[in-house]
Amino acid sequence: MREALVRYFEENQRLIEAEALSLLLTQPEPLRLSRRLLEESEAGGPFVTRGMVERMLAVGELTFHAPLLVSPAPTAEAPVGSTPSFRLLSEGFAPGVAGRKPLEAYEGLFHHRYRTVQRWLKGRPDLPNLVSIKELRGREGTASVVGIVREVRITSEKKHTLLALDDETGSVELLLPRDSPATRTTFLLDEVLGLTVSVPRESGRLPIVRSVHRPDIPASRPARPSSGTTRAMFLSDLHIGSRSFLGESWSALAGFLRGEGPDPEVAAEIRHVVVAGDLVDGIGIYPHQERDLAIHDILEQYVELGRRLAELPARLNVIVIPGNHDAVCPAEPQPALPAELAELLPPNVRALGNPSTFSLEGTAVSAYHGRSFDDLIPAIPGASYARPTEVMKGMLSMRHLAPIYGGRTPIAPLPRDGLLIDPVPDIFVTGHAHTFGADRYRGVLLLNASTWQAETEYQRMRNITPIPARAAVVRLSDLSLTALDFSDPGRTAVAA
Ligand SMILES: [Fe+2]
Ligand SMILES: [Fe+2]
């Protein structure tokens, strides 16, 4: 945790004093407190002192407290002094909007998004003379702004790009000449980014964009310890209750985890299983879904999910998040399964919200179901459901899971933006695309964790070809990956 905190402050262009760090580490949720510290000291200098931490603790948790939505799992925690096997770092969903008008809440959400990304970008050498949009008027020469993308237009005649950008002080229209390298960026609506611009001397002419800077993640990550053999398995999109659920493949997976497969040594090292949403198929999710269902009652689907998860060895720490097929509010960030559904699952299963970031043996994992692929894939030229990890790289560079508001991904009107990627994980897992993909971006392992549902008529119609019954197994100490293929239940294959 100590290293994770130091890294967190570094990513936010701050240096934390040793004494401030020690004090934070004595608190129950140090990462959450660190984030609050940064939010409350936006205008502060580059150092975080013990005094700043003491002042924050003296004021108490006034506004920012997301209760832990998980009950402690019965699995044994690591002994005191070693790295705990599981720790929740952040959960996108944080209740606290009761009584607020939705429009106000969305305003709060976008302010929080803007201020957070601005804090990440402030002080970067590639954004000199950073000013507000209001201050940009009446200047001339080179300056930088941070803004939220409101509109992108191509002029009909000369094919230049016009970018409308907002911040808390106003709006501005910027010009990207057709031949400018900055036009290579695909600007996404509602993302927050930094731009360097040249403001022409003549009044009435638009400022010209010179370069574009997304918040992104640090180019290099600190070296990881390379000892230890504990592994985690990543799965997604079980779709229990669907006629197309691959029961035999699932039984082969359970057998493998019990050590009955070809690689009992690998199976024995697996301590955690993460499932990235669409746990059940749900009811009424798409037109005529009833034709595809084997279990027509939503509660019964979760009872069956409990049975299927109970086939996995009870020694495993199983973490599940919901997806768009699950019986929780579809607006993101989604809360964890409610207690009445979670209690249908075995006691070694923890239900967290979508998205959630947690530490497994000190390795930070972000799990997001991936609904926003439905908005990002059409918006990014060349992006496809067959290569979701490419889109995940874009999410990391924007430091946001679902920037576009008003598309197919419903966004919850919460006062803080729980879809920002903060902290940066070591492993980033998604599902939803029903394919299997693995890649790396700036030291982060990206996984799209397959599905346990065969192709449905609805997917055929939407041109989605699944790669089902794959499991990604990652050694937590060095992030090395083993891909397992259970699509032919008689024969488990190590795919990569
Ligand atoms: Fe799915
Ligand atoms: Fe999904």
Would you write up a description of this structure?
With 496 residues, the protein is of the alpha/beta class. It folds into 3 domains: 2-65, Helicase, Ruva Protein, domain 3, CATH 1.10.8; 99-215, Nucleic acid-binding proteins (OB fold (Dihydrolipoamide Acetyltransferase, E2P), Beta Barrel), CATH 2.40.50; 231-494, 4-Layer Sandwich (Purple Acid Phosphatase, chain A, domain 2), CATH 3.60.21. 24% of the residues lie in helices and 22% in strands. It has a 7-stranded mixed beta sheet with strand order 12-11-10-9-18-19-20. A 6-stranded mixed beta sheet has the order 3-13-14-15-17-16, covered by helices on one side. Helix 2 (18-25) packs parallel to helix 4 (50-59). The chain is globular, with a radius of gyration of 23 Å. It starts with a helix and ends with a strand.
Main traits of this protein?
OB fold (Dihydrolipoamide Acetyltransferase, E2P); Purple Acid Phosphatase, chain A, domain 2; single chain; 6-stranded mixed β-sheet; alpha/beta; Helicase, Ruva Protein, domain 3; 496 residues; 7-stranded mixed β-sheet; binds fe (ii) ion; 3 domains; 24% helix
**Helix count?**
13
CATH topology of the largest domain: Purple Acid Phosphatase, chain A, domain 2
Distance between the termini: 31 Å
Main CATH class of the largest domain:
Alpha Beta
The assigned structural class equals alpha/beta
Strand order of the largest sheet: 12-11-10-9-18-19-20
Q: Which architecture of the largest domain does the CATH hierarchy give at level 2?
A: 4-Layer Sandwich
Tell me the helix content.
10-25%
Provide the gyration radius in Å: 23 Å
The structural domain count equals 3
How would you state the average pLDDT, rounded?
Answer: 89
Query: What global shape is seen?
Result: globular
Query: What percent strand?
Result: 15-25%
Q: Ligands bound here?
A: fe (ii) ion
Record field, number of beta strands: 20
**Strand count, sense and closure of the main sheet?**
7 strands, mixed
List unreliable stretches of 5+ residues: 61-82
